[in-house]
Amino acid sequence: MIVAFSVTPLGVGEDVGEYVADAVRVVRESGLPNRTDAMFTSIEGEWDEVMDVVKRAVAAVEARAPRVSVVLKADIRPGVTDGMTSKVETVERHLSD
Questions:
Q1: pTM score, two decimals?
Q2: Are 20 and 7 in contact (CB under 8 A)?
Q3: Under a CB-based contact definition with an 8 Å cutoff, are residues 65 and 57 in contact?
Q4: Thiamine-binding protein domain: which residues (predicted)?
Q5: CB–CB of 44/80 below 8 Å?
Q6: In angstroms, what CA-CA distances link 48 with 3, 17, 65, 72?
Q7: Partners of 42 in the beta sheet?
């Protein structure tokens, strides 16, 4: 499964990078395959382990912010591994044709 999610602290002002870094740190320390871009962090693994990491990432932000917004999208596809890489490779292959 791949989960793309964003965690946004609310009520802390406009500069939220420090808070977001707390969440991304949790994801990176999980050891699961992950990727962060300007809008989302994606993480890949089994349901329980991925959702545990998401929950802990949210908790890291929640510990410092009075309110937290979470956006989450999941691709649940049993038996697929390395989906984050293979999906992008497929698109790149089509773009190079």
A1: 0.90
A2: yes
A3: no
A4: 3-92
A5: no
A6: 12, 27, 25, 15
A7: 4, 35
